[in-house]
Amino acid sequence: MASLRFDGRVVIVTGAGGGLGRTYALEYAKRGAKVVVNDLGGDAHGTAASTSMADKVVAEIKKAGGEAVANYDSVEFGDKIVQTAINNYGRVDVVVNNAGILRDVSFGNMTDLDWDLIATVHLKGAYSVTKAAWPYFRKQKYGRVISTASNSGVYGSFGQANYSTAKAGLIGFAKTLALEGQKYNIFSNALIPTAGSRLTETILPSEIVAALKPEYVMPLVIFLTHESCTENGQIYEAGAEWFGTVEFYRSAGKIIENATPEKVRDNWAQITDMKNARNFKPGEIMEYMMTIMSEKESKKENTSSGSGASSGLESA
Ligand code: NAI
C-alpha cells in the first residue's frame, strides 16, 4: 500500500519544540507537510518563554529539506498560531494539540496557580487553537484534530488532580468535536502517549525514560491525521512500540421502579455487574437511553394488561 504522504497539507503541532511534538513535526515535514512548529519555549512548569526551542526544530526540518515555520505564542492564543499557518501557507489541515506542562502536587497543597496554569495550557490551549482552525476546516470540508490526553485522566494519578482533570476534559473535547465535525469531514481523536521526555524524566527511572522513545508514539499520530484515516471520536494509546485503544464500558444496569436508597443498596450487585457491559460510540448514548425508556414503558403496559410478557428488564 502507498505510504502516508502529507503533500499540500499544513499541519500545526503545538509544543513542538521538544519531546513528542518535535518527533511529530519532523515526521510530518518528512512526509511532505508544511509544518507550523509552535512552542512557547518555557520550562516544564509553565513559566518563562523563549524562541529557541521552536527555532531549533524548524532548523532541523529545513536542514532535512522540509518546510516549516516557527511560532512562539502560548497555546492560549490559538488565533495567532493559526494565523501563522494562514500567513505563511494559506491554509490549515491538521491540528495536533500537544503542548503541555506539569505542576504535580498533592491536592491539599495545590494552589490556585497550579490549578489554573494546567487548565490554561491543556484545556484552554486545545480549545483556543482548534477553535481558530475550525472555520477553515469547515469551509474546506476537511480537518484532522488530535487532542493529547493521558492515562492520568482515565485512571487518576496521585499528585495530579489538576493535570488528570484537564486530560480527562480533553477526552470529552475530542469526542464532542468528533460529533460536530463529522459532517464536514473533520475527524477528532484523543491520544494517550507514554514517552520519555522532560515531563516524565522526573517521574520515571532513567532507564525507562530512555526506552520510551517519543518516536514510538509518532506513527499513531501520523496515521490518525492522514486523509485516508476515518477514525473519529476514539481514544488511542501508544508507547514503547505498543499501540492500543481505550474504551469506557457501562454495565447493563437495572431499572428500579419507585427507587429508594434502600432498593439501590439491595440491587447493588446487579447495578454494578459488568458481565453484559458495553461501550458506546459518540452519539449512541442518547439512543440507548431511549431504548431503556421504551422498554420500561412496554414493561409497564404488559404489567397493566396482565400479559406477563417479559421485556428483559426486571423490576426491583
Ligand atoms: P515536553 O515537555 O517534552 O513537551 C511539551 C512542549 O510543550 C514543550 O516543548 C513546551 O515548551 C511546550 N509548551 C508548554 N506550554 C506551552 C504553551 N503554553 N504554549 C506552547 N507550547 C507550550 O513533554 P511531552 O512528554 O513531549 O508532552 C507532550 C504532551 O503529551 C503533553 O500534552 C503531555 O501532557 C502529554 N503526555 C505525555 C506523556 C508522556 O509520557 N510523555 C504521558 C501523557 C501525556
From TrEMBL:
Pathway: Lipid metabolism; fatty acid beta-oxidation. Keywords: Fatty acid metabolism, Lipid metabolism, Oxidoreductase, Peroxisome. One of its GO terms (biological process) is fatty acid metabolic process. GO terms for cellular component: peroxisome. It comes from the Eukaryota. GO terms for molecular function: 3-hydroxyacyl-CoA dehydratase activity; oxidoreductase activity. It is found in: Peroxisome. Its main location: other. Residues 9-198 form the Ketoreductase domain. Belongs to the short-chain dehydrogenases/reductases (SDR) family. This is Peroxisomal multifunctional enzyme type 2.
